[in-house]
Amino acid sequence: MKNRAWWFLLPALAVMSLSAFIPLMTVINYAQYSVFPGSAPQFIGMENFADVLGDGVFLDSLRRQVLFSIEILLIEIPLGLGLALALPKKGKWVGWSLVLLGIPLLIPWNVVGIIWRVFTRSDLGAVPAIFNWIGYGAYNASLNSGDAWWTVVAMDVWHWTPLVILLCYAGLQAIPEEFYRAAKIDGASAWSTFRYVTLPKLRHSLILAVLLRFMDSFKIYAEPFQLTGGGPGNSTTLLSIYTSRKAIGGFNMGFGAAVSIIYFFLVILISWLLYTIMMNVGGGSSK
Amino acid sequence: MAKIDLKNITHVYKSGGEETRAVNDVNLTLAEGTSNALIGPSGCGKTTLLNIISGLLTPTEGQVLIDGKDVTELPPRDRNIAQVFQFPVVYDSMDVYGNLAFPLRNRGTPEGEIEGRVQEAAELLGLDDRLHENPASFGPEWSQLVSLGRGIIRHDTTALLFDEPMTDVDPGRKLTLRRRISQAQKRLEVTALYVTHDQHEALTFAEKAAVMKDGQIVQYGSPEELYERPVSTFVGNFIGSPGMNFIDCEFAGEDLKAGKFTVPLNETMRNSLDSSWSGVELGVRPNLVDVYDEPEGGGEIPAEVTLTEHLGSYQIITLKVEGIGVEIKAELPLEEKTDIGSEKFIGLTPKNIMLFHNGEAIQNEKK
To answer: What is the ipTM of this complex?
Structure first.
C-alpha cells in the first residue's frame, strides 16, 4: 500500500458506498428483522426468507417474471438482429433510420406506460379499434388477463427492440468488408456467411444486448405499473410490482428486503449463466 | 492453371451523381502459370481491377476471359479464383482446419476427401502442426497463410490474386511470408497476380509486372524492362528507389542543352529527335549518374552536394545544379567523400541516358 495512487480510489469508493454498499447492507440487515413503521424492529433470523419462499403469490410473480423475460428476449433479440441486418449500411437514410429508432428509447419509462395505457383503452384507444376492425372484437386489456399480458409484452418490444437494433447495427458496422468478400470467394451461401461470419462477429454485441435486456426486463416496474397496475387480478404482477406492493404498500419492510435479496441474486445468477453460455456456444468444428 | 485475358475493361464508380473512372480501357493477358504483379500509386485502380478479375465487381464495360471462356458475368464462386486481401481474413468461429475446409464444405465435398486436401495444403504452407488452433490468436503473417490456404485448397483453383497482402505484416516476417507465397505459387503452377504499391515486393515476386496509372496500364514487362526501358517518365520515376532523374533540355541547333550545358548524344538519339519539338526530357537512373571530384574535360556539369543519405551498402546524394534548377540524385559507394556543400561534377553519357518527349519515351529506333 505504499503506492499513493490508491488514494485516488477514494472518491469512487465514497460514491459506491452511498449508492450501493450501504443500501445493500441495510437491505441485508432489514431482511433478518420484522420491520414495520412505528414499531421497534425485531430480529427474526431467516424467517422472512422462509415466508417469501412459502408465498404462492411470490412464486407466481417469479414464474411470470421469468416467462416475461424469456418471451421478450425471444422476440426482441431476433427481431432486433433482423431489423439491424435490414437497415441500410450507408447513404442518407442511415441517419434518419437511427434517429427514428432512437425515439422510443428517449421516452421515460412511466410515460411509455401512460402512452400505452391511452393507446389500449377500450373506449378510445387505437389498439382495440384495430382489433375491432380486423374482427377480434373482444380485446380488453383491463378485463382480459391474456390481452393484458400480451399488451405488456408488446409495449416492452416497442420500447426496447430499438436498443437491440442499435447494438447489433453498431456490431455489424464494425465487421470489415473483407470478411464478406472472402466468404464470396470461398463460395459461401448467404446462410453460411451469416452463420460463420456475421453471427460470430456479433457475439459481443449480442451478449451485451441479451444481458441488458434480461436485466432490465427482469426488473421492469414503471411501464406495467402505469399500464395495468399488475392486473387484471395478478395476471401482470411482475416481481418488482409484487416487491413494492409488499414492502411499501403492505409496510412489511423486512419481507420486502428478503424479496429484494432473492431478486438481486437471481439477476446476478441468471446474467452469469447467460453470459457463460453465450461466450461458449457455437464454435466451429474440425471434423 | 489458367490464362487470364482482360479485354477493354472499364469500371466507373457512381456515387451521389459523381462518376469516377477507376479503370479505363485496360487490356492485359496473364499467361498460364506465371507470377505477375500489378503496381501503381494508391488510387490508381489496382484493387478495382483485381476485384473485377475475381468477380467481386462486374466491370462497367469489357470482358474477363479465363482460358478463353467469358466469365464477366459469373460470381466469384464459379470462377475458382482465390484472393488474399490486405486485411487478413480468418474465420475465428472455426479452427485452422475448419478454415481450410470451409471452401470445400461450401461446395459439398465429402469429408473424407476434405481431410486429405486439408493435410496437403497445410503441409505446403507449414500450417500442419497448427491445424487445431484457433486462428483468432494468429499474427497477420499466419492469418494470411490461412487465408492463402483457403484459396489453394480447391484443386481447380485457376488463379491466385493478392491484394497488398503484406500491409499488416511485420517487416521482419514479410520475407518468410513472401517466400511461402512464392513457393506455393510455383509448386501449384497457378497463375498469380500480386497487387501492391511496393515495387520492391512486386519485382521480387513477379516475373512480369504491370504498372498502372489513373486507371490505365502504362507498361507491362519484366522487372528489368521496367527498370531499364521505362515507356514514360511516370514509370521511370515510379520504378526504382529513388526514381529516375529528369532534366528539361532544349534544342540548340544540332545539340541538346540543359541550361548552358551541352548534353552528349549519339547518332541514334540525334536521329530520333524532331526539331519541331520545343524540347525533351532527359532521364537518367541514379546509379548511372557519373560523379567526379574534378572536371574530366567531357562537358561535366558542376553541382553542389545538398544532401547525403546512407542506405546500408551505398549512399544517395542529392546534387543541385546551378542555373538548371533541378536536383539530381546519384547512387555512390559509401567510401566516396560527399560532404554537404562540396562541389562535384556530373557526367552524362549517351548509353546511360534516355530521352522523353511529353512524358513518353522516345524510341531510339524511330527515325
So the answer is: 0.76
Query: Is residue B111 less than 8 Å (CB to CB) from chain A?
Result: yes
Where do runs of H (alpha helix) occur along chain B?
A: 46-54, 96-106, 111-125, 140-152, 171-188, 199-205, 223-228, 233-238, 267-272
Q: What are phi and psi of B317, to 5 degrees?
A: -115, 145
C-alpha grid cell, residue B104: 470445400
d(CA B162, CA B11): 20
The H or E element containing residue A224 is helix A222-227
Distance of CA B195 to the CA centre of its chain: 7
- Give which of B359, B229, B362 is closest to B285, Cα–Cα: B229
B224 touches chain A (CB under 8 A): no
Q: What is the DSSP string of A1-65?
A: ---GGGGGGHHHHHHHIIIIIHHHHHHHHHTTEE--TTS--EE-TTHHHHHHHH-HHHHHHHHHH
Choose among B5, B10, B3: nearest CA to B58: B10
Cβ contact A284–B94 (<8 Å): yes
Work out the minimum CA distance from A73 to partner chain B, whole angstroms.
24
**How far apart (Å, rounded) are the C-alpha atoms in residues B132 and A53?**
49
Cβ contact B75–A184 (<8 Å): yes
Sign of torsion, CA B117 B120 B124 B125? Answer: positive
Axis-axis angle for helices A145-173, A109-119 (nearest 10): 130
Distances, alpha carbon B143 to alpha carbons A177, A179, A268, B97, B137, in Å: 16, 13, 38, 13, 9
Q: Among positive and negative, which fits the CA dihedral B161, B55, A94, A103?
A: negative
The one-character DSSP state at B62 is E
Residue A181 C-alpha, separation from nearest chain B C-alpha, in angstroms: 7
Torsion angle of C-alpha atoms B116, B120, B122, B128, degrees rounded to 10? 70
**pLDDT tens, chain A, 287 aa long:** 578 888 999 999 999 989 888 888 888 888 888 878 777 888 888 888 888 888 888 898 899 999 999 999 999 999 999 999 998 888 788 888 888 888 999 998 888 888 888 888 877 888 888 888 887 767 777 778 888 888 889 999 999 999 999 999 999 999 988 899 999 888 888 998 998 889 989 999 999 999 999 999 998 888 888 878 777 878 888 888 888 888 787 778 888 888 889 989 999 999 999 999 888 876 544 44
DSSP string, A85-129: HHS-SSSTHHHHHHHHHHHHHHS-HHHHHHHHHHHT-TTT-HHHH
User: Using CA atoms, how far apart are residues A179 and B88, in angstroms rounded to an integer?
Assistant: 9
What does DSSP assign to residue B348? -
How many C-beta atoms lie closer than 10 Å to residue A76's C-beta?
Answer: 25
pTM tops 0.90: no
Cell of A276: 457463460
Q: Which residue of B has its CA nearest to A90?
A: B15
Nearest to B76 by CA among B58, B98, B62, B91: B58
The candidate with the shortest Cα–Cα distance to B63, out of B128, B8, B4, is B8
Helix (H, G, I), strand (E, B) or coil at A159: helix
**Helices A145-173, A56-86: crossing angle, 10 deg rounding:** 40
Instruction: State whether residue B140 sits within 8 Å of chain A by CB.
Output: no
Domains and CATH numbers, chain A: 57-237 (1.10.3720.10)
Give the A:B interface size as CB pairs under 8 Å: 74
Residue B69's Cα: distance from chain center in Å? 27
